[in-house]
Specification:
22 helices; mainly alpha; 3 domains
């Protein structure tokens, strides 16, 4: 039961109606039931995975929290005993208290490590087992070994990367004392399984989502209306743009030998549009559904294709994933004991400049390697992740030269130069995404090279575009939809478009506008043979 299916639309209307009709104390249990019904339709066997991750991280959080409370109570007791002189300094003195505190913190760290390891182990087994076997077989083949390991038949549960990361962040945050553990198992289960964000995120933090997830919500016509508006806009992106351009992208990718040179550039541009409309459309639906229920969910995009460089792009694209990697991988690695020792050694032996950069770049390398393999268990995603790392690191190293150039040429505030920067970012990111398209590292480099060796740009103007599986009418609809997408993004630069419409248009006018949008989706949405309107690209992650 995915977002674009009729079953889901019926499910959603029924759930929202029940949510506001039932007593308020039944709202969060209804969401839990609805979330598991939703996940059941993705595959009933997948319920075991999400339950296992939920139980493991719930128990870990509970044990950490209980240890913290008991340790704090014992620490206070030791302090009082030391003041009163009722016990010897060796038992309750300052040094004894310090050792006790360190011992209990170490115990909590072990609990956290075990909980995280078990949760990630489930993800690793289902997502990376066959990738590991593939690489082992490659090594065996290189050494001409006679035997090979057979691949396993393992279905990848929907959204397992998203809810696993969400659950892991919960355990770490409990350990860091950012919030107490949730003692009610069913409430915690709702946090992990909240159905709007199961498909493709955002990756919520417990401290943010729990504030409203369990709170009672009264019906508000404005809240439901605004959520519905956001959902409609998501469906427009997905069905009118992403799914309409999908056949052309698939045609060129599935038979790369027939579509070289200029067609590779088309793949870059078409896939960039498809991915953006598909992913942001899905997130719009997610945020809109949560908003209809009175539950705010973090924004995941901030007009990424207006970015002037790749680092800025990643601050605007899949924001919750980026901040997750920053908070739970980059910073812990950067300040870890081994990294501090490396920094000290490198400053002494390699110089101050290298010493400053080496730990940061090493931590960044690990983050981007992890980002790549998180997206998919194959080398093309790893190379894609490391490609981003290389571009960002080169850009940072060349920053002094950029500043000298800008000062000399006086590009500050230049609209032309800003436009160039935006265009450059789009081209670089689209080129890197070719690894996602062709799913084969050597083939990706080969196809990219044909843009400069196969000069067939003239074929794009002789009707060849009509051989890609979409018609002239499709191109017209895509052009109008893309222009609308850009216009809305431009208006959103100075604030929420919905807020602006609310101020300038009375309710009847807004409903007319969004009725037109609904009709556009129904009339011009891509359905039927050749389209996969039920699947979102990020489901696979």
């Amino acid at each position: 039961m995915l977002f674009t299916s009729y079953a889901f639309i019926g499910f959603l209307f029924l759930l929202v109606a029940l949510y506001y009709v039932l007593p308020k104390k039944a709202q969060w249990p209804l969401l839990l039931l609805g979330s598991y019904v939703f996940y059941y339709y993705a595959g009933w066997k997948f319920l075991f995975y999400i339950l296992a991750v939920t139980i493991i991280t719930y128990v870990a959080g509970l044990l950490i929290s209980r240890n913290k409370k008991s340790a704090d109570a014992r620490f206070s007791e030791m302090k009082e005993l030391d003041k009163s002189g009722s016990a010897s300094p060796e038992e309750v003195g300052k040094e004894a208290r310090k050792k006790f505190k360190e011992k209990e913190k170490s115990r909590r760290r072990k609990i956290m490590a075990i909980g995280i390891t078990l949760a990630l182990l489930i993800l690793a087994v289902v997502k990376y087992t066959n990738f590991t076997i593939y690489n082992i077989n490659g090594i065996l083949s290189a050494f001409h070994a006679p035997k090979r390991i057979n691949f396993l038949t393992i279905a990848l549960p929907t959204g397992i990367s998203f809810y696993t990361f969400q659950a892991v962040s919960y355990v770490i945050d409990v350990y860091r004392d950012r919030h107490e553990a949730q003692t009610n198992f069913f409430k915690y289960a709702l946090f992990v399984s909240f159905f709007p964000q199961l498909v493709q995120g955002p990756i919520s933090r417990y401290g943010d989502l729990s504030k409203e997830l369990y709170s009672p919500h009264s019906f508000s016509g404005r809240t439901v209306e605004r959520g519905f508006q956001r959902v409609l806009w998501g469906y427009f992106k997905k069905l009118v743009i992403a799914d309409r351009i999908l056949p052309a992208v698939n045609t060129m990718i599935d038979t790369p030998e027939n579509f070289k040179g200029a067609y590779v550039f088309l793949v870059m541009m078409f896939y960039a549009l498809e991915l953006y409309a598909d992913f942001t459309g899905g997130i719009d639906i997610t945020i809109g559904i949560a908003e209809m229920l009175g539950i705010p969910v973090k924004e995941n995009f901030e007009r990424p294709f207006f970015s002037k460089n790749i680092a800025e792009y990643w601050r605007r694209w899949h924001i919750t994933m980026g901040t997750w990697f920053t908070d739970y991988i980059f910073y812990p690695i950067s300040v870890s004991g081994p990294m501090l020792k490396l920094s000290k050694w490198s400053r002494k032996h390699l110089g101050e400049k290298v010493g400053k950069r080496l730990p940061v770049y090493l931590a960044s390398f690990i983050v981007w390697f992890t980002t790549g393999i998180w997206h998919g268990a194959s080398w093309n995603f790893i190379v894609w992740g490391l490609g981003n790392f290389v571009v960002i690191m080169i850009s940072q190293e060349l920053e002094p030269l950029y500043r000298k150039f800008h000062k000399k040429v006086n590009t500050d505030g230049s609209t032309v130069y800003k436009t160039f920067q935006v265009g450059r970012t789009i081209l670089i990111m689209s080129a890197l995404r070719l690894f996602d398209c062709y799913r084969n590292v050597p083939l990706t480099f080969k196809m990219f090279g044909t843009m400069f060796t196969t000069w067939n740009w003239n074929t794009l103007g002789n009707g060849a575009l009509l051989q890609l599986g979409i018609s002239r009418a499709d191109y017209v609809i895509l052009a109008i939809g893309t222009i609308l997408l850009i216009v809305v993004s431009m208006f959103a630069r100075s604030g929420s478009v919905r807020d602006k419409l609310e101020k300038k248009l009375p309710m009847p006018g807004r409903w007319i506008l969004f009725t037109v949008l609904l009709l556009l989706i129904l009339v011009f949405g891509a359905y039927g043979q050749g389209y996969d309107a039920s699947q979102f690209i990020y489901n696979q992650f």
